[in-house]
Amino acid sequence: MLKKLFAFALTLMAIHSFAQGPVISAKDLANELKTNKNLVILDVNPADVYAKQHIQGAINLFFKELYQPNAVEGKLRPANELAEILGKKGISNTAKIVVYENESNKHNNRVWWILKSLGAADVWTLHVDAKAFATAHLAMNSVPVTAKPVTFTVTDSPYKLLTMEDVKNLPKGTLLLDGREKEEFEGVDAAKKSKGHIPGAVWMNYREVLTPTGAFKTKDEIIAAAAKFGATPEKPIVVYCNSGVKASTLFVGLKEIAGFQKVQYYGGSYADWASNPENQIVQ
Predict the structure, then answer these.
(1) pTM for the model
(2) Of 106, 141, 176, at which residue does a domain stop?
């Protein structure tokens, strides 16, 4: 009887711990590492950042390795190439995977989405916070990790990448959210990467779903923030940014945490849209 009660208590703790969508805390990760020897921690920082310090046991896969070289910024490699890269790194589609990066809490969400789109079922995203890491006693070191190659099998997934043609033919009533900086949206950014935005888009900076430290807000906080931009849980929504990175954070916040069921992701984003000179861009 005591064993059954203990198991039930553990189940309740797990449900409570992982209630914030696909986000795992440093404390929960530290506990998971004690019991799950097959857990894959994926560090998507550049190699030089990884070499200085990373979570003990983490595998390094710089997020840009998943992009097509000499192509539109952020354009993903074909699914079979992505699967081959992941498999060689020791990452399978059946593993429990935790993705993180050191600074912006953006590229981890992008890689989370990529993994989900390939059919990986058990994927989590971790917000890096020095104070939380210290409290959780999460071990860090600079020892590189090379895992044994495995097979990553691409399977069908509900996480679909919208194409340029999809965006051109969005159903009436769909809210197109631009998650970039205001200067990019208006086409006046100093870097000159943007001449404006996709016609009909509404600006909602991706930070609207984050706290000042870069962690995700709560469900209620995100719903309140999104309402200011006309985004409600029942409305069809498409998110985009410059190359799909910031939009992935909007996607996780709105769909996975706040429970907006009709959120779709234009991963090619502005870079893809602007690559066709026939497409209109407005300021």
Answers:
(1) 0.91
(2) 141
